[in-house]
Amino acid sequence: MKLFIIGAGPAGISAALYAKRANIDTTILYKDSATLNTHHLIDNYYGFLSNNGSQLYEIGLSQARALEIPLISEEVIDIKVFDKIIITTNKNDYEADALIIATGSSRNIPPIRNFKNFEGKGISYCAACDGFFYRNKNLAVLGNSIYAAHEAEYLKNLTDKITIFTNGKEIEVESLKQFNIVEAKIKSFEGDDRINKIVTDKDEYDCEGVFVALGSAGALEFSKKLGLDTLNNKIVVDKNMKTNIEGIYACGDCTEGLAQVSKAVYEGAVAATDVIKYLNAKKRSLNEKK
Ligand SMILES: Cc1cc2nc3c(=O)[nH]c(=O)nc-3n(C[C@H](O)[C@H](O)[C@H](O)COP(=O)(O)OP(=O)(O)OC[C@H]3O[C@@H](n4cnc5c(N)ncnc54)[C@H](O)[C@@H]3O)c2cc1C
């Protein structure tokens, strides 16, 4: 029985420590960037007088390494649930029996006029969820990374009219170059009820749908793909950090409440404690069926 955790911040590492110490086969997938690395001092975390954020982050990683928990630096771009949970990264597919999402909170909404107004009215965050409604339409994918490439590849089966808008950034992955590319900065989205135009600082483009795939996929993108309940842009969990999908948990900044290290550490521990019970019950029931 395998547990995968996405995220190596305080929530993900805390969950991994609890799970591994209960002898659960635990693997962490993470990107190199971490919120803790972005701030200098943590003054309010129990047991540390005053700590550099990146030191705290490194200590977390070392704790996981000390327990021989595999820390795989790969970016997760898709998750699907069948009998097993299939996690797709920029390099591999993994099969899990349980998953803890601990990806923090990050949705970069660029300052583009009318962005919010067209969410759900032509602006989508999930090709697999909404792509079908845009068959043969003129589509834009907003992004420049491996995640944008993944979304564009999916949409390619539905339309051959795809343009990648990088919004001023350089293309990061070769496979995006098969599509039309517009690198100019976007000024606004225009339309009546629904979006019908993208205006850049150089030109205007007709467009019936925009798929947002900026940077990497985060908690909200995964929620959309999986059908996880969300509220106020956070994943909804119960008191054991369970989401509405069996075997999938969330903890830390991607759930509601204080965005603080102490809360992330607590929730990671709670999630892992419940995962342990969940996987043991699953194992028992499989053994009984044999
Ligand atoms: C400027 C600033 C100052 C702060 N100061 C304090 C403070 O003084 N005290 C305090 O308690 N808190 C502070 N915080 C908040 C604290 O940093 C967060 O609450 C905490 O880091 C949340 O932990 P987390 O594990 O939920 O998420 P994060 O620490 O954000 O970790 C998320 C993890 O998920 C990984 N990830 C995300 N997407 C993917 C993907 N697609 N594939 C693979 N991996 C992925 C990331 O690489 C990372 O490892 C501060 C935050 C900021 C921004």
Describe this structure in words.
- The protein is an alpha/beta fold and 290 residues long.
- The chain has two domains: 179 residues, 3-Layer(bba) Sandwich (FAD/NAD(P)-binding domain), CATH 3.50.50; 97 residues, FAD/NAD(P)-binding domain (3-Layer(bba) Sandwich).
- It is 27% helix and 26% strand.
- It is built from six helices and 20 strands.
- The strands form six sheets. It has a five-stranded parallel beta sheet with strand order 5-2-1-9-20. Strands 10-17-11-12-13 form a five-stranded parallel beta sheet, with helices on one face.
- Strand 3 and strand 4 form a beta hairpin.
- Helix 1 runs parallel beside helix 2 and helix 1 packs parallel to helix 6.
- It is globular.
- The two termini are 16 Å apart.
- The model has no long low-confidence stretch (mean pLDDT 93).
Explain briefly what this protein structure is.
With 290 residues, the protein is an alpha/beta fold.
State the domain count: 2
- Spatial order of the strands in the main sheet? 5-2-1-9-20
Give the CATH architecture of the largest domain: 3-Layer(bba) Sandwich
CATH class of the largest domain: Alpha Beta
Small-molecule components bound? flavin-adenine dinucleotide
Would you tell me the structural class of the helices and strands?
Answer: alpha/beta
Measure the end-to-end span: 16 Å
Main β-sheet description: 5 strands, parallel
CATH superfamily of the largest domain: FAD/NAD(P)-binding domain
- What is the overall pLDDT average? 93
So what's the overall shape? globular
The share of residues in extended strands comes to 25-35%
Relative helix content: 25-40%
- Total count of helical runs of at least 4 residues: 6
- String of helices and strands: EHEEEHEEEEEEHEHEEEEEEHEEEH
Cα-atom Rg, whole angstroms? 20 Å
